[in-house]
Every structure is written in C-alpha cells, then in structure tokens.
Design brief:
Layout (H helix, E strand, L loop, with lengths): L90 E2 L3 H15 L1 H20 L4 E2 L1 H28 L1
Parallel strand pairs: 1-2
Helix pairs in contact: 1-2, 1-3, 2-3
Amino acid sequence: MSNYPNDPNQPGGNGEQPNDGSGYPQYGQPQYGNPPQEGQQPGGPQYGAPHDGSQYGAQSYGAPQYGAQPYGAPQYGAPQPGSPYGGVMPQEHQRGTLILVLGILSLVCCGLFTGIPAIIMGRQAMQEIDASGGAIGGRGKVKAGFICGIIGTAWTVVVVIIRLAAH
C-alpha cells in the first residue's frame, strides 16, 4: 500500500481497480494513470494523438521549442552528403602506413634498420601534415610509427651496449 493519497496505482485512488485479494491488478484492466474519460480509449492517448501539454509542463507535440530551427533550415555542423562526420575528410599522408610498418618492425625484429628510417620519415611527414593546414590527415598513424621507431632504435642500442659490456 502506498502512503500517498489519490495514488492512481493503488486501490482507492483515482485509478480504482478491482481487487481479487492478491494485491496485483487484474488482467486487461488499465494499470497506470487516470481511468479513461468518456470517449477515450483505455490506456491513455494513442501514439501520435494530440496532447494537451498539461502533464508535467510538457509542450504539445506540434509546438516548436524555444530556439528551434524551422524545418528545412541548415543545421550548424550538419553532415554534408558523402561524408560521415560533417565535412570533407582530409586525405591521409601517402607514407603514413609505411612509417607505421617500419616503426612496428623496429620493435619486433629489425631494430636500427627500420627504426632510423621510421624516425626520419615520420618527422618529415609530421612537418608536412602540420604545414598543410588540415588538408592532409593521418597524423596519428605517422606519430605512432615515429614513436615506435624511437623505441625500437633505443631498445636496439641498449641491447647492443649490454652485449658489448658482457664480453
């Protein structure tokens, strides 16, 4: 039992329901809200039916919200046809994938042989991307290859020093 007066979900409130003693609403009876008014179907207004806007300060369905754009007006930042994120996608740097592969190979097996080219080419590619003013993308891929090249080269140098010191 609820402690709230006129609780529509409890027997004795506005939504009086037959009770068989179980405490649960009967099958086929309205369970929530006020009982249907004359000329109204049980269960409240149907989907798409006009709404008077009285419940919880809601506006009616057809009323435009404050500051809303009218239909057909262009939205700020709206996606342009043919691009998924609202603008022209920049073309990736042509050597971005090569730099990333060289950097990863320097970590895995080739060390100095691929690490140094990844560092040199990665620095050049990042300078080209920065100078393009956003026309060329792929900075993340190039930077990842550049960093992997640095780590692979440094790791190779450390291993060589340790081996030379051990002899």
